[in-house]
Every structure is written in C-alpha cells, then in structure tokens.
C-alpha cells in the first residue's frame, strides 16, 4: 500500500500534538499518576479506532447528506469540552477536601471521542484521504489498526509527561495553577472548531 507511510506520518502527527485528549491525559497523569491513567489512555486509543471504523462504515456520508447533524454535534462538543475545562480548573489536588476526584474511566474516554472535535477531524481525514478504494474492508481495518497502534504510545507520552510534572507540582497551589492552565488550553483547543 503506497499510502501507508503517509498514513503513519499523519497518525503520529495528529496523535502526538496537543488537543483535548492529550491535555486531559497530561492533567490526569499529574493528578492521579500513570497507573490510574492507563484506562483513560486505552479508552482514547481503542475508542478512537472504533470511531474510525464507524466513520468509515457510513457516518461520513451521513454528515455529507445532513450538514446540520455535523453542526449540532459541533456545538454539543463545544459545550461538553467547556464543562470538562471547568471540571479540570476546579479539581482539588489529591488528598484535599471530601472528594479528590477520580480519573476518567475506559468507557468515558472511549465515549469522549464522539464529542472531541480533533478526533472527528482525524477520523474523517484518515478515512477519506488514506483509506484505499480497493478492498475498503481491509483498508478500513488497516487505518483503524494503524491509528490504534500509533495513538497509544503517543497518548502515553502525554500521561508520562503529566507524571513528571506531578513531581514539580507537589505544592497544592502550583497544582491548582497547573489545572487552571490546562483548562485554559482545553478551551483554546476549541478555537479551530468555533471559527472553522
């Protein structure tokens, strides 16, 4: 397959760059540690691979036929990401208050892909640009499998980066400031969605 190197490069570039998933994984690594963030990481990678398969099976066509469905999803996504940014900004450092919070679960992370504007862009691009027209079933499995395999180590790096930051952010005040900064970055990641 001639497009395989290009697909791999796209998967790396889109998986490693900042976006809602990576910012939330870094925040989770900082607040909860790497081990407790693993279900979140797996939910992102496997949930996104499933999203690619479902997009390839017809959701892209649905959005082409009914653009209003895409517009509705866009604004639901924006509202949910703003809610998540609020939760991140107001999260209490571990050990403070009644509830120190808990990391995102596997299912929550997998479902989050459906309201993540960057995930939609990645899935639609992966399917429409890199899926070969010959033998679409094999092509779809290849695109989803390659993305899943590349995405997991990339998101793992963001969680590991959060763990490294945790050591530096041992002070509760610094950790609160970090959470607010992460929330601001999460909101900023919406810019292409809102103006696009």
Descriptive tags:
0% strand; single chain; 196 residues; mainly alpha
Would you give an account of this structure?
- This protein is mainly α.
- Helix content is 80%, strand content 0%.
- It contains nine helices and no strands.
- Helix 3 (34-65) packs across helix 7 (136-168) and helix 4 (67-89) packs antiparallel against helix 8 (172-188).
- The longest helix has 33 residues, at 136-168.
- It is globular and about 55 Å long.
- The two termini are 32 Å apart.
- The model has no long low-confidence stretch (mean pLDDT 83).
User: What percent of the residues sit in helical stretches (DSSP H or I)?
Assistant: over 70%
SSE order = HHHHHHHHH
Q: Give the N-terminus to C-terminus distance in angstroms.
A: 32 Å
> What is the number of helices?
9
The beta-strand count equals: 0
Give the assembly state of these chains: single chain
Mean pLDDT: 83
Largest sheet: none
| Overall morphology | globular
Kindly estimate the percentage of residues that lie in beta strands according to DSSP.
under 5%
Low-confidence runs (pLDDT<50, min 5 residues)? none
Q: What Rg is obtained from the alpha carbons, in whole angstroms?
A: 17 Å
Class from helix and strand fractions? mainly alpha
